[in-house]
């Protein structure tokens, strides 16, 4: 077994997951490495990595959380989100279902020349990055295609573009900076993030469709294609995920939680929670407090 003091990011991840990546690619004498990882339900502790890493969530069940100061994050990573994992910072991950991600690690020394090197000094979890996702998907598609000289040149160019995008840092842009006449994946991810931030809001189909710049019928279709669930199901899941955190971390009454999360009544909340979690909110809270510390 190799000495852990000289392990790279991918060696550490493979050790934590107990398996090698499905696909691995590297270049520039080890200064960058791109890997695809597929893993299943579980909680994983990842030791500090020597190099920063850009993570793209490309598929799998849309429910991946990271460990924060006092518990699992309320925000979940979804297919289409990106995350930056800084070097020298241990992280924790909770996977509820299949996980399918691509990681790109770049030598720490290269960040000194990056215009946005400061962005790699802290964790940035589950942010919208349509360009990074599109480049990653294109690279994967080529890696599974028959190998040829032309393909290798093309893959190299795509990886260079993804590295440049990662090192430049995401460009801040509002919805108004994009044409309103055409649908953009940016808009869907912006809407998804807005729902996760404020699940208690009404989030009507008509309002969401206006934000996406499409008709309500078309919005429902493209949203389900992107997430695998309808807008209503996505809002409900966001509310119930938040409800679990409130039940675990507060003594608020069921009526208070129901009202705070936008449910029409306490009975509506209880019924939806039982369907979602397989038990009532009271049983969920009681079971959580019965578990020994």
From TrEMBL:
Boundaries of every HTH araC/xylS-type domain copy: 186-287
Statement: the UniProt record of this protein carries the keyword DNA-binding: yes
A Pfam family that the UniProt record links to this protein: HTH_18
Record bears the keyword DNA-binding: yes
Keywords, alphabetical: DNA-binding, Transcription, Transcription regulation
Protein name as it appears in the record: AraC family transcriptional regulator
């Amino acid at each position: 077994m190799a000495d852990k003091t000289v392990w790279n990011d991918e060696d550490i991840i493979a050790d934590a997951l107990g398996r090698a990546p499905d696909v691995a690619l590297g270049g520039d004498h080890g200064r960058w490495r791109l890997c695809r990882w597929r893993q299943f339900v579980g909680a994983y502790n990842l030791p500090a990595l020597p190099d920063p890493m850009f993570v793209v969530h490309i598929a799998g069940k849309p429910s991946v959380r990271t460990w924060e100061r006092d518990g699992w994050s309320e925000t979940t990573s979804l297919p289409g989100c990106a995350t930056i994992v800084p070097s020298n910072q241990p992280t924790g991950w909770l996977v509820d279902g299949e996980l399918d991600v691509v990681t790109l690690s770049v030598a720490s020394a290269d960040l000194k020349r990056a215009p946005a090197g400061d962005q790699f000094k802290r964790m940035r979890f589950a942010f919208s990055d349509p360009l990074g996702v599109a480049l990653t998907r294109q690279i994967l598609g080529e890696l599974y295609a028959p190998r040829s000289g032309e393909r290798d040149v093309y893959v190299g160019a795509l990886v260079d573009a993804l590295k440049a995008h990662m090192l430049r840092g995401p460009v801040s842009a509002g919805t108004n900076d994009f044409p309103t006449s055409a649908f953009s994946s940016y808009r869907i991810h912006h809407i998804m993030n807005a729902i996760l931030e404020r699940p208690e809001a009404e989030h009507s189909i008509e309002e969401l469709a206006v934000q996406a710049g499409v008709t309500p019928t078309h919005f429902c279709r493209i949203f389900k294609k992107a997430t695998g669930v309808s807008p209503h199901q996505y809002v409900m899941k966001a509310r119930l995920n938040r409800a679990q955190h409130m039940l675990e971390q507060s003594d608020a009454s069921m009526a208070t939680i129901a009202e705070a999360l936008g449910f029409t009544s306490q009975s509506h909340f209880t019924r939806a929670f039982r369907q979602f979690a397989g038990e009532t909110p009271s049983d969920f809270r009681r079971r959580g407090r019965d578990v020994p510390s």
